[in-house]
Design brief:
With about 400 residues, the chain is of the alpha+beta class. The protein has 2 domains: about 5-160, Creatinase/prolidase N-terminal domain (Creatine Amidinohydrolase, Chain A, domain 1, 3-Layer(aba) Sandwich); about 165-380, Alpha-Beta Complex (Creatine Amidinohydrolase). It is built from 10 helices and 16 strands. The strands form 5 sheets. The chain has a 5-stranded mixed beta sheet with strand order 4-3-2-1-5. The longest helix has 24 residues, at about 165-190.
Amino acid sequence: MTGLTEAGCRARRERLWDAVPDGVEWLLIADPRHVQYLANFWVQPLSFSGGERGLLLLEREGRATLMADNFTVRSAVHEPYVDRNIITPWYDHRHSVSNRDHALFEALKQVAGELQGRTGLVEAEWLPLAAAAELPAATSSGNGHGEVAQTDLGDVLRGLRRQKEPDEVELLKTCMRAGDAGQARLREVVRAGVTEFEIYWEVQRAALEAAGRPGLVYGDFRASNGNNIKPGGLPTDYTLQEGDLFILDYSVVLDGYRSDFTNTLAVGMPSERARELFGYCQAGMAAAEVVLKAGAACRDVHAAAVGAYPDEGKTVGFTHHAGHGIGLAHPEPPILVPESNDVLLAGDVVTLEPGAYVEGVGGMRIEHNYLITDDGYERLSNHVISLT
């Protein structure tokens, strides 16, 4: 259980340095997803430090410094790939505690002197103003001088995240295998008389057993029918009835990376109309797969999916995106919608997610995950897509 690799983290740092102006000598990373992306430091969200974070200082000559409080670092999933740790006390079992962010401020004070007179960039949208005040005045807002002032570090990192390194793909495949296991368990337990929450329990157990470690399981675990065609969210105590359609559209999150794929199963025998709608979804996915490759405009992928439906989907309620990117967030670029400006890149990991929602029948959608390549794709999810 290594998470990301040191080689992968170093490769991502090199790509980051290539993307910022030459005059920048240091970078302060504050978004927890980006600290994970660049250093393999991820706070276990199921721990007492869930929601807390560390800060990562990168210097152009190669040194990486992690700053965190003593309890946050204890809740890290893996040993981070850094050259130096600055761990400041927050709670010592002897004294009262203060605002936890103050521990990070103290760590910043220790490095602020080293940064004086050197130009840098701060991921300012994620850094409290009080913390930024500890940094050299010329860079505390995330801006330096001249060209540097036009560089938004957060935007740079979000752009780099699209093209996945091999260690990221391997971690995503682990998430996919766990997701596949949960989808397989759904096929075994879905029936009239069970509740949405009982299904959630079974799916979660199967997914985490396949992952072999704790993780987050979230998404849509909901029954659809003629009166509730587009349900979403976590399960309720609703008891499934004959004729319902159960939508399992969910993610398994490990080390911050996630899967996201869907199937819809009939509770009992599906109606002929439900079978017909499901066929539209399958046709939409197949049509979109034909154009799925690096260089394809995302609006064209959406058009291919919707174009496989009768009257281009207008009669069956296909109103949401045809897919989106996944990785450290959900959804993230590229987005497959009619007015998207995104173009697929080799290294993107995306979903295809056609759906159909009709009053009096119910709602459904299906979804697979794909790694985009220069000449097509590698499908990463392997669950069975069928209505029965």
